[in-house]
TrEMBL record:
This is PAS domain S-box-containing protein. Residues 1-254 form the EAL domain. It comes from Luteibacter yeojuensis.
Length: 254
């Protein structure tokens, strides 16, 4: 497979990079954490989307090495962030369902924390609902290990996958991320608004935080602030950016 060998080469030659998108506290505008987003620059200056190489990476098992690299790079970035005076920010890494099922994610995170001497909560993860559905017992064990070592878990794209209320009841989940399909027309569509209100109430009742993703305009942001959504993320607040631009964003005017 040509593509698979290109991915293998990209890992070996360190071609991947991470961009970072701030997650912002709605009421204050304070940056709460950063979501790491994998980027594979190609020679023409554009990037190959993770959507185009993660599925093949999962089929070939290369996702294990990519995942390891992402956590390591996130840890390296946290060291640099701390040096720049932003060590209070955590970095959240996306973990796909196959990756969650095939690797001991808690061990990978724990390893990175130890090797780079980070504080326990410095790295966090984002999972989709499907990660928790495939093998209930091993998912529960993995979630408990993550929680015990202080690794926060957010449920990504919430409301679009197959989910079970029993998981929300039983598992140590820190935050729900409302999928952007509900956020996009929340100020204009009463049905989207009802779903967002319900997710916010559900999260808060269960002691979880709630993040709205894909916030692209002031109308969405105003609605989310008025409705008590704790955190917001999207182009209206900040785009994903490389580390240099991130430092400029975090230190305006310096
Ligand atoms: O940022 P972007 O739109 O390109 O992300 C596309 C998809 O790729 C999203 O679903 C995102 O969660 C996923 N993704 C981004 N970075 C990573 C990563 O490091 N690992 C995995 N498994 N998925 C990622
Ligand atoms: O599946 P996940 O939620 O991890 O995907 C994150 C993806 O969403 C990334 O590819 C990121 O680049 C993208 N993204 C971030 N903010 C916005 C936004 O405001 N609008 C849209 N359409 N995409 C966004
Ligand atoms: Mn995500
Ligand atoms: Na998402």
């Amino acid at each position: 497979l040509r593509m698979a060998s290109r991915i293998r080469q990209a890992i070996e030659q360190n071609e991947f990079m991470l961009h970072f998108q701030p997650v912002v506290e709605t009421a204050t505008g304070r940056v709460e954490k950063l979501e790491a987003l994998l980027r594979w620059p190609s020679s023409d200056g554009t990037c190959i989307s993770p959507e185009d190489f993660i599925p093949l990476s999962e089929e070939t098992g290369l996702i294990i090495d990519i995942g390891r690299w992402v956590f390591e790079e996130a840890a390296r970035t946290h060291v640099a962030l701390t040096r720049a005076g932003h060590g209070d920010l955590s970095i959240a890494v996306n973990v796909s369902a196959v990756q969650f099922q095939r690797t001991d994610v808690a061990a990978v995170v724990g390893d990175a924390i130890e090797r780079f001497e980070l504080r326990p909560g410095a790295l966090a993860i984002e999972l989709t609902e499907s990660s928790l559905m495939a093998n209930r017992r091993s998912a529960t064990a993995a979630m408990r290990r993550l929680s015990a070592q202080g690794t926060h878990v957010s449920l990504d794209d919430f409301g679009t996958g197959f989910s079970s209320m029993a998981y929300l009841r039983d598992l140590p989940i820190d935050a729900l991320k409302i999928d952007r399909v509900f956020v996009s027309d929340v100020y204009a569509n009463e049905r989207s608004a009802s779903i967002c209100r319900a997710i916010i109430t559900l999260a808060h009742t269960l002691g979880m935080a709630v993040v709205a993703e894909g916030v692209e305009n002031a109308a969405q942001l105003d609605w989310l602030a008025a409705t008590g959504c704790d955190f917001v993320q999207g182009y209206q607040l900040a785009r994903p950016m490389d580390f240099d631009r991130l430092l400029t964003f975090l230190r305006p005017g310096e």
